[in-house]
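Pipeline run #58 for the internal structure catalog. This entry was flagged by the ingest filter as a single-chain record with no existing model, so it goes straight to prediction. Upstream metadata was stripped on purpose; only the residue string is passed forward. Reviewer on rotation: M.T. Logging verbosity set to normal.
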Amino acid sequence: MSDCLLRVENLGKEFLLPGRESFWAARAINFELRSGEAFGLVGESGSGKSTLGRLLIGLHEKSEGAVYFRGERLPQRYRQRDFKNYAKHMQMVFQDPYATLNPRFTIGSSIAEPLRLRGERDNLAQRVAQMLERVGLAPAMGNRYPHEFSGGQRQRIGIARALIAEPALLVCDEPVSALDVSVQAQIINLLRELQREMQLTLIFISHDLAVVQHLCDRIAVMEKGRIVELADKQTLFNTPQHAFTQKLLAARYQGINN
């Protein structure tokens, strides 16, 4: 794949449990991601999709396999310098933005943090103001604190902080699942606009097939820590091959009819 941005080979994560037991949250994961692509990762709760997202950007140590970014093999276990080196290329938006915002910092300060960590000091206020506008918030809001914002606004702040360093890859882990339906649509449309405008490569993790269908070009379905089906969205929704994919789609259509 000549325009391959990310390549995942036999990736897995094993967690140790009390009593020296262990389980594989993700195993034998293989896929490639094209530059500029919107890639959906779907599955039920506990399927391993969030674990996979964290493995890709170094928040979990890899138990097996490898991740390659622009042909370079990423570390099995990230050290502080690795986060600094790769954060400018890869960022994550989390399900609960409030949990990732320091309540003692203004949102302007929080958004600027990725730039400060890279040693950048010039025009921070101006860059934060521009990023706030890009996500649909007034620049003056940069002087306010996280508790002063609604859930949808906080998610916009989380997106702004992730994108201010202009990464090539953005991993979104259930970013709209805690929001009202009307607000979900606004955030999804915002991500879609930003992806096209900034030529982002996007991994969107969700249990909601309708959201993934609206946003993504290709979709991988996870069950019990493994990818059981991967296809372009038209093929996946029209002619699903795996029984678990068929089950997910049947449950979705049943919910619509009810």
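catalog note: The domain at 1-74+169-232 is CATH 3.40.50.300 (Rossmann fold).
catalog note: The first strand starts at residue 4 and ends at 16.
status: ready for reviewer M.T.
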